[in-house]
Prior knowledge:
By secondary structure, the protein is an alpha/beta fold. It has two domains: 3-112 and 301-333, NAD(P)-binding Rossmann-like Domain (Rossmann fold), CATH 3.40.50.720; 114-293, 3-Layer(aba) Sandwich (Rossmann fold). The protein contains eleven helices and 14 strands. The longest helix is centred in the last third of the chain and has 20 residues, at 302-321.
Amino acid sequence: MRLMFIGRYQYGAVLNIGFLSKTEINIDRLCNALAPRRLTVCRSKKELYTHIEAFDVLIVQNQGFKRGTVDAEILGRAEKLQMIQHHGVATDITDIKAAASRDILVATIPSQNSRSVAEHGMHLILALARRSSLVRRLVVEGKMGEVECVELQGKTLCIVGLGTIGKMIAEAAKGFGMHLIGVRKKMAKLPSNLSELKAFSALDLHVALALADFSILVLPLNDETENIIDRDAFAAMKRGAFLINISRGAHVDRSACEAALDSGQLAGYAADAMWEEPIDPNDPILTDERVFLTPHIGGKSAEAIERITDAIRTNIRRFELGEPLLNVVNSDAF
């Protein structure tokens, strides 16, 4: 847990809080949790640009926003801003270096929605194995039994990203009798309950993909991981493998993904994060029954929403009282 003190806010002054979000359930929950404080909700980068000058604190939620939305241009207008609080652990929406250059602390909320995201990852794995997009049409058409699925037992799952969520998925997949391999940037020792998992370095990603029946992406978005699944990565996979993405749409090269589906190299693609969010209802990918999509709901369990809301309320209160903030990610820059 990273702690960091703040010193410019005068206790008792009116605190101006902005919330960059497109998700109404989180907007409603946070407005209620922080009452009687008043939140100014910004649902677009343009709205944030207009209002940023007034904010002491900015809460940001990445869903529906591109990497680096809170950039140097936005922060250059943030004359009062002292703290950026992320609505979760991912920070790709914020230019961390630009924030540090303006003495703005950036805080996250690690692990509070990990269980929810991990369970959703298993849901997407099962959705592909059980051909859920096709099955829904068969129900509507009044047909039954006209589908062939695959079992998870004995299949190999490659988990690309072995952080908290990746390890939870590994533990769940083990319960289905899957063989486990993983890819990680740092080759640290795995917990004893995952001793049978074979880990590969990031340099050996394609080697790991070639062994897997199912691969799932559970990693942050940055310069190294953007378009990490490109044409070469798809070519390295087993023919007829499945790919699941519960991280960011930009991890996957869309044209390469569509080409792999069309050629049969990829049997199915499931994602909780799209290339553009929200997705265009007329996007042709929505009619592809080899594809199963959900609208960025991995972290939306009632329990996860409550935990994250409580954590934000706690850090806002610490800010008001001049106490050290929790989970500051750019404290080394101060």
